[in-house]
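#lab-general

N.A. 3:47 PM
ok so I finally got the sequence cleaned up, no stray characters, all 244 residues accounted for. can someone with queue access submit it? mine expired

B.Y. 3:52 PM
send it over

N.A. 3:53 PM
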Amino acid sequence: MSTTLHTKRKVSGLSQTAVAEALGISRPTYIKIEKGEIQPTDTQKKILARILSVSEEILDTNILKQFSESEVEMRDIPVENIEKFKQVLLYILSKVGSRPNIGQTVLYKLLYFIDFDYYEKYEKQLIGATYIKNTYGPTPISFAKIVRAMEREGLLVEVKSKYFDKDQTKYIPVSEADLSCLDGSELQHIDSEIERLAHCTATQLSDLSHKDTPWIVTKQKEPIEYEYVFYRSRETSVRIYEEL
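B.Y. 4:20 PM
back already:
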């Protein structure tokens, strides 16, 4: 089972032991609270609200909400649209691919923020690619396979270059993107993400991704779950939420 209390604790960078000590209970007892097996007392709620920087009302209505394994599985598994992946990549390359900073690493981060920001805004997937947590930020695991296929199809060409003193892999589009697979809101979203982020270096985008809740709470080399976008900080959130 999984609860959003578990997520809030990880986002706060607190261990189960640290929270248990703050509550004056044993770690096994706290684990039962985190799993939703037992309810915290009113005093414990006050302490949890303070150390997790949330209101007690949210603790009552949201933090202790419990999801079954089947519900989590249904919510968290992305459904990758390979054709959209290809066309979005071609579109990005046609717009900014010739810029000196747009190499493979920057493309990884642009695709990640396009996907995860869209999910936060609209609660549905755009490309739906699966990203894993790597040292330098999120990596779309199908990228290499899809790019190889696009090369065989004559849609793009991979070239090696230098960006300052570092090796860089760039992609030159040979074909125009077929935008018929994207609706108006999707295309507008992609354009806004390109405008907001495409000027950044790989290091800047990596640093930004490292501040993003989905990346923070994921273990190294594991898939990043889309649902964590709803626990973003103000620094990376792109959705306007109503005040509780």
